[in-house]
């Protein structure tokens, strides 16, 4: 696995702050929630994975360099 530099992790944390809303674009896991599932960011760990509480109850994180999600909502999230 390719771990990101500290600067990259900090940039991910800035882009996906705790409490923001995200939508899943792609996840490479048999237990992944369906594409388009939305959730709330709980944090970003030290290897750049975005920890999400998915609206459907799934607990899988968005893995850095493997999975993809994007932020949704406005500035007043």
Walk me through the structure.
Strands 3-2-1-4 form a 4-stranded antiparallel sheet. A hairpin with a 5-residue loop joins strand 2 (38-44) and strand 3. It has one domain (6-72): SH3 type barrels, CATH 2.30.30.40. The longest helix has 10 residues, at 6-15. The N and C termini lie far apart (33 Å). 13% of the residues lie in helices and 30% in strands. The chain has one helix spanning 6-15; strands at 21-26, 38-44, 50-54, 68-72. The radius of gyration is 12 Å and the shape is globular. The protein is built from 1 helix and 4 strands, in the order αββββ. By secondary structure, the protein is an alpha+beta fold.
Class of secondary structure makeup: alpha+beta
- Give the CATH topology: SH3 type barrels
Low-confidence stretches: none
Average pLDDT across residues? 93
Number of strands: 4
Order of helices and strands: HEEEE
Strand order of the largest sheet: 3-2-1-4
Most strands sheet: 4 strands, antiparallel
Task: Give the strand content.
Answer: 25-35%
Q: How many domains, as an integer?
A: 1
- For the CA atoms, what is the radius of gyration? 12 Å
CATH superfamily: SH3 Domains
CATH class category name: Mainly Beta
Dominant shape? globular
Task: Give the termini distance in whole angstroms.
Answer: 33 Å
CATH architecture assignment: Roll
**Range of helix content:** 10-25%
| Total count of helical runs of at least 4 residues | 1
Short précis:
With 77 residues, the protein is α+β, with helices and mostly antiparallel strands.
């Amino acid at each position: 696995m390719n771990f990101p530099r500290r600067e990259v992790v900090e940039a991910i944390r800035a882009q996906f702050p705790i409490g923001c809303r995200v939508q899943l674009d792609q996840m490479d896991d048999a237990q992944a929630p369906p594409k388009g599932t939305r959730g709330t960011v709980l944090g970003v760990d030290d290897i750049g994975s975005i920890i999400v509480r998915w609206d459907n109850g799934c607990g899988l994180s968005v893995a850095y360099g493997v999975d993809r999600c994007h932020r949704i909502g406005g500035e007043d999230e």
